[in-house]
Design goal:
two-stranded antiparallel sheet; four-stranded antiparallel β-sheet; elongated; alpha+beta
């Protein structure tokens, strides 16, 4: 049986309005299978979940669907994970099914943080592992350090922007990423410093300055 509907109309009814296939079929006078075929097989729609108090998405149960908003203005839900953790997650990640736990299903997953993105932390951890350097600090610690430094490079005093030009440096490069042995630098400064200790790097910069102005 041919159904005279457009892709746009069916998307609006099936995905945006979240109507059931059988309800749409009844309205059009066709069978449920026809609607399911068009939406799921032919046009590949992804039906979004209803996000309301008590809704379950994987291991997460929604406690407050309108808990707060992210810095970019996206709605954030408060959920309770089956492992016992309270978990804040963007509403979109729940409706699309991209998130189904607080991260306990993947213990090696980069932790959520309001200001430091996952890619930065994952790259830091991967780089440390590749170079056989222990990472004995938390994402919360390095954010607190960033704040303590006034969001400025520890050596040049330049203003830093997290996830853009801020780079985490080991003060003594012969040691691990430990509390008290890390500082935030501008990424260009950190590239120049490389494996030097802070003292040696500053000494070299001073000599370069003296020679260039000599």
């Amino acid at each position: 049986m041919a159904i005279n509907v457009t892709k746009e109309w069916l998307y609006e009814e099936y995905v945006t309005k979240n109507r059931k296939a059988e309800d749409i079929a009844q309205e059009l006078g066709c069978c449920k299978q026809n609607i399911s075929y068009l939406a799921n097989t032919k046009w590949g729609f992804r039906k979004r979940r209803r996000i309301e108090v008590g809704a379950r998405i994987g291991k997460l149960v929604v406690v407050d669907p309108y808990f707060t908003k992210s810095e970019s203005g996206h709605p954030v839900c408060l959920c309770k994970c089956d492992c016992g953790n309270d978990f804040k997650v963007r509403r979109y990640a729940l409706t699309t099914g991209n998130t189904g736990s607080c991260g306990c299903l993947r213990p090696n997953q980069a932790p959520e943080h309001e200001h430091i993105n996952k890619r930065f932390w994952k790259a830091l951890r991967t780089n440390a592992k590749t170079r056989n350097i222990e990472l004995n600090i938390t994402i919360e610690y390095i954010w607190q350090l960033f704040e303590q430094q006034g969001r400025k490079c520890a050596l040049s005093g330049e203003a830093l922007t997290m996830n853009v030009d801020a780079s985490l440096d080991r003060i003594d490069s012969t040691k691990n990423y430990d509390e008290g042995n890390v500082q935030w630098l501008h990424k260009n400064v950190n590239t120049m410093k490389w494996d030097f200790t802070t003292e040696r790097f500053v000494e070299l910069c001073r000599k370069i300055t003296e020679v260039s102005h000599g």
